[in-house]
């Protein structure tokens, strides 16, 4: 049954995608409002098609220009994040060379960056900042690569500098978001099963996609933390550390089936300091590598 399920889902995916691609290309070329909203509707459809059930926790996404800092463990992250709201992504330059999927990324108006060239960092930050000034929501994966889904890798602070310029006198909000693949067919996904959905290392994309589609409905826990600003944190490195800690703790608690307890770790520092006694003690938080 798994190969049949994967074949049916992949066929529907390709048919719908091929029909919508020229429509989105026209939206992007003419700079129509639908260039932002069509990918949102499209990815919500994909969630329904693939059986991706999103369980939200935390606060709503901030309105207006927004930089989202999220963990990255799978190609499924693109579908899940895009189903939350109209948004675009910041992706490594290699994605722009991938057959077929590079076109999908470009049609969602992805910003491509080269992480291996420090000399380009300033120009790339400016490109992201310009999009933010235009009122857009951009998703940044600060880990720089995908993980195995059992833990969150260290956040690179370089591109957080894009949140430095103020827009209309207000600082650009940065919102940490944790995405955790928690249950398959209603049952918790253990560490040994997580490779079915986590795509990392030297895994081939197409075989991984085929196998994942054959598995069945999956529950994804998305924890949305309160937005913070670079101005409030004092530096991009402090901002990166705050987002890494908030996302890491939310992933750990979501793997343990306790996502509601992640609230304390994503509060802006001034608020968290006032409510320190209510924070979850560090020793009580399970390791993200041991669900």
Q: How would you characterize this protein structure?
A:
This protein has 291 residues and is of the alpha/beta class. It has a single domain, classed as Glycerol-3-phosphate (1)-acyltransferase. The chain has 9 helices and 9 strands. Strand 3 (88-92), helix 4 (101-107) and strand 4 (111-113) form a beta-alpha-beta unit. Helix 1 packs antiparallel against helix 2 and helix 1 (2-29) crosses helix 6. The longest helix has 28 residues, at 2-29. The chain is globular and about 55 Å long. The two termini are 29 Å apart. The model is unreliable at 271-291 (pLDDT under 50).
Using only CA atoms, what is the Rg?
19 Å
The count of DSSP E runs of length 2 or more, i.e. the number of strands, is: 9
CATH class reads Alpha Beta
Largest sheet: 9 strands, mixed
* Helix-residue proportion: 25-40%
- Number of domains as seen in the coordinates: 1
Gross morphology is globular
Please identify the structural class as seen in this structure. alpha/beta
Q: SSE string, helix = H, strand = E?
A: HHEEHEHEHEEEHEEHHH
User: What would CATH call the architecture?
Assistant: 3-Layer(aba) Sandwich
The mean pLDDT is 88
The N- and C-terminal alpha carbons lie at a distance of 29 Å
Query: What is the count of DSSP helices, taking H or I runs of 4+ residues?
Result: 9
Q: How much of the residues is beta strand, in percent?
A: 15-25%
Low-confidence stretches: 271-291
CATH topology: Glycerol-3-phosphate (1)-acyltransferase
